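Late entry, written up from scratch paper. The run itself happened at the end of the previous shift, but nothing got recorded in the book at the time, so transcribing now.
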Amino acid sequence: MSNTEPDIESRLKTLEDELEERLNSEAIKDSIIVEYRQALSDAQFKIAVLNGQLKLANQPTA
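Output as recorded:
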């Protein structure tokens, strides 16, 4: 049984390292998504302002 213990410990260490790497990757992805959402929100706001200005500029004159 002691022959497999180093193998199990080695495999466990490998899996723990992989898990840590994936968790770090997920955290990075989450932060990027937040940045993209903020950029999209800012862009949508700018588009709404420009659309409002365009509507005001294109009002029919009486």
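The first helix runs from residue 4 to 57.
(Scratch paper discarded after transcription.)
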